[in-house]
Design brief:
The chain contains 10 helices and 2 strands; from the N terminus they run H-H-E-H-H-E-H-H-H-H-H-H. With about 260 residues, the protein is mainly α. The longest helix is centred in the C-terminal third of the chain and has 32 residues.
Amino acid sequence: MNLWTAVEAVLAARDVEAKLEGARDLLEHWREGRLEGRADPGPPPDHPGIPDRPLLADPRAMPRRQLSGPENHAALIHALAHIEFNAINLALDAVRRFPGLPDAFRGDWLKVAAEEALHFRLLRDHLRSLGREYGDFPAHGGLWEMAGRTAHDPLARMALVPRLLEARGLDVTPDIQRKLRGYGDGAGAAILDVILHDEIGHVAAGDRWFRHLCRERGLEPAEAFRHLLDQPFVPRPRRPFNEPARLAAGFDAGELAALTRASA
């Protein structure tokens, strides 16, 4: 089975269940040695398939979600589910867009895609327990915007998606968990325990391949990361940082200190 064709089919899927099952099957087939990806696949697709709902809005137009009642509670869980759905496409796009990287890179991001699909299922099931469905609230495509801006370079992709945007998830998750527990949603907080554990591994995969690419290019990782953070389209890192999670994901103490000094 051709790896590139199989990944493109899952990327193109607009049906949510097809996307989720496809991400799971890709990892299973990869581990079974049933996917072959050595031939040049040609240019990748520019955009993934997405369902008709949720309706997408400008990230700046999205309200801040406060746990002030059932509607906002459901909207928060929906926002978290949407992040995980986008992350499936981001992981698969990394596999398809950068075919020159080693098989280990493909295996890492196929695993990430399958885990993101699991996270989405957990959050969608929880959303359903609140009487709502994925697509009931508007959402935004900010994560995919960064994918487009880093489509030219795997080093930039690894730096600015896993090491910047997904690492931000490590920072904010404990506070979201505290709010959910305070609201009485222990089940939602427990789902985020699973997600936080796995996301440390996802950021670690990005960190590992970022450093691999820096070594290949003779770059010093901390300096290369600072240079990318200085680009005008890149959001500034924000305190507080989840230092234990970031250290577990590959950041070092010196880099965290520098990020703290430079953060908004």
